[in-house]
Amino acid sequence: MMQNVHLAPETDExxxxxxxxxxxPTYDTEELxxxxxxxxxxxxxxxxxxxxxxxxxxxxVTRPVATGYGSKTSLASSMGRPMxxxxxxxxxxPMTAVRGSWFYQSSFESPEEKIRQLEKKVNELVExxxxxxxxxxxxxxxxxxxxxxxxxxxxxxxxEQVTTPENINLDLTYSVLLNLASQYSANEMYAEALTTFQVxxxxxxxxxxxxxxxxxxxxxxxxxxxxxxIKFYRMALDQIPSVHKEMRIxxxxxxxVTFIKTGQYxxxxxxxxxxxxxxxxxxxxxxxxxxxxxxxxxxxxxxxxQKLIAVPLEIDEDDKYISPSDDPHTNLVIxxxxxxxxxxxxxxxxAMAEKYIMTAxxxxxxxxxxxxAVGYDWCVEVVKASQYVELAxxxxxxxxxxxxxxxxxxxxxxxxxxxxxxxxxxxxAAATNLSFLxxxxxxxxxxxxxxxxxxxxxxxxxxxxxxxxxTVFANGDYEKAAEFxxxxxxxxxxxxxxxYNIGLTYKRLNRLDEALDCFLKLHTxxxxxxxxxxxxxxxxxxxxxPHQAIEWLMQLIxxxxxxxxxxxxxxxxxxxxxxxxxxxxxxxESYRYFPSNIEVIEWLGxxxxxxxxxxxxxxxxxxxxxxxxxxxxxQLMVASCFRRSGNYQKALDTxxxxxxxxxxxxxxxxxxxxxxxxxxxxxxxxxxxxxxxxEKMKEIREQRIKSGRDGSEGPRSRREGSASSDSxxxxxxxxxxxxxxxxxxxxxxTNEPYESSSNKEIDASYVDPLGPQIERPKTAAKKRIDxxxxxxxxxGDDLLPE
Length: 802
Known about the structure:
Layout: H1 36-43, E1 87-88, E2 91-92, H2 102-106, H3 111-134, H4 138-162, H5 170-186, H6 190-202, H7 213-222, H8 226-239, H9 245-262, H10 265-278, H11 282-295, H12 298-309, H13 328-337, H14 341-368, H15 372-384, H16 391-405, H17 409-417, H18 424-440, H19 444-457, H20 462-474, H21 478-491, H22 496-508, H23 512-525, H24 530-542, H25 546-559, H26 564-576, H27 580-593, H28 598-610, H29 614-627, H30 632-644, H31 648-661, H32 666-679, H33 684-711, H34 715-720, H35 722-746
Antiparallel strand pairs: 1-2
Pfam family, one: TPR_6
Subcellular location: Cell projection, Cilium, Flagellum; Cytoplasm, Cytoskeleton, Cilium basal body; Cytoplasm, Cytoskeleton, Microtubule organizing center, Centrosome, Centriole
Function: Positively regulates primary cilium biogenesis. Also involved in autophagy since it is required for trafficking of ATG16L and the expansion of the autophagic compartment.
């Protein structure tokens, strides 16, 4: 074999492709069995690689190819052609610049290298899963975690084939399983999460896996399996050494919270008392107060509140962020750290502490003493002696709000008036609330006075400016009110009350386009606000765009589907568009949720009459008569429905009942005369006599009123207008006489068909809605949705956050 290897010549020759026609000794197979290099190549993967040929010559430099022995010699190809870059018969062959394919390169990768690449891929998948979880894509995070688990199992099998089991990367397996369990839990797949956690906990090769029982306890807590949650928390507590103090405290806090959920307050108190004695924190202190409040122990509530107040915040003072000198470098550093992440965390911690203390004070103040006022005073004194001294004023304001909730208006006002001599911030807050209270009492002068005080104390208080705008709005100065609302928005762009009130102001000024812009902006902030949706629909209605109004009202009823006013408004708009079926649907829904709206009842009754279903209209008019028993027209409508449906006896009984309740009602007597005449009853003469007497009395009464009105005029006016007055009186008397004659002639004779009486004129004060000339409730004359129903015209007033 070695006789076929030629040395490279010292100099290149011109004919680079010579020797192709020569006999290639590679085809000599007689000595292959004795060729050690060939036999070695056959037994290894090197001999199974595909042949490498070059069809196009390249300018690559000459490089010898290594053999299986590592010697840098040129081998002839299996096709009899010299290998690329080899030398045959003293001629140098050009080497190709094309690299070997990937599968050729991979054939040289060792198993250890493949394992390292797979391990790297598993780590990347775990990292991608965690990133997806932090971004909120829980589904993708779970898919990545599952993929990491599958590849990690493949990795373990490959390691077992190459190395001993002791060399398996247990840390990687642990992290993959833990991440998978966490992603199952985040996706609320609690059964799969518990199974995965059990795999980790039961594997003795994982050190400190017992602490994961805390995670299992958390899952049982979410499943409301409190007994198992407590069991796993305690098992975790037993397996965590005492040196891990912080973790043990957190587990004990979980145990205490679980005891509260199960109502075992004494056990919860023991847990939280231990925490407050070992490492006091805000959450444990607040939960301890809740536990004592649940068992009603006043003295312990006071002590727990004092412990909560004493919890150190461990944050820097605000003075740290104030520059002590004019050094530009120092000022630059302070400006940089004034709002960095650490400062934001300190603010959040302080806000959380204030929230816990304020909530605890409001909770225990009414029960720790004989009255809530004394309890608040005690809490205020304790707070004043602590590091949270600025919270004392807020507690006093909350005391006033509690008075307000108890409808003790005078005490609320007196409490707030105590702040008139305080610093500007507190004074502005108290004056804002006083302005709000007086505004609700319609004492606009006092409300305006305190609004001025609030604005003068703090010109940048948006609540004060809003209340000032409200008082100006109440006095009808809408332009000036809009200026105050705009200033409030400039100080705080998130003041939704001011933006809402600007919309109302523009609506009063008939600047509907600007009002619509305000409410649409507000809609982007408060997506599901019923008031805002109604205002948009109302503005479109005022702009005579009923289709848009209907569309926004449909959105409104999707938010408040049981609001009867919104449903009746939809019915009104559909009725104005001529769509009676849709109008009936929404009017009926409105009646179903609130069966006491007279307008809706009247429309439904008239609808059934219009569709010739008088029997169904009866129930609506009967309900109307119950709601307004002094209004005779509803009972007359009931009787008329009976008459129209052919139930004359029931109609007669109804008219008689009406006559007993309203003996001077002319319409009732007229129908009684008609019915008795048609039926042939003897009472007809009695009712006819009463009818004539009442009509005569009515005529005399009208003449007296007319003469009294004429007598009140001066002599000069009589002389100047005598001709016209006489003419007017004569015409009036003549018309009354003609109307009376017409009424009398309208009474049916005994032989006249009953149905013909429906066309006759009756009194102008009552038009029978059942005759051919029926007057339906007109949508144009209907009252629009009351401003108080949605509080739509109520100005947005501000109370400071409690």
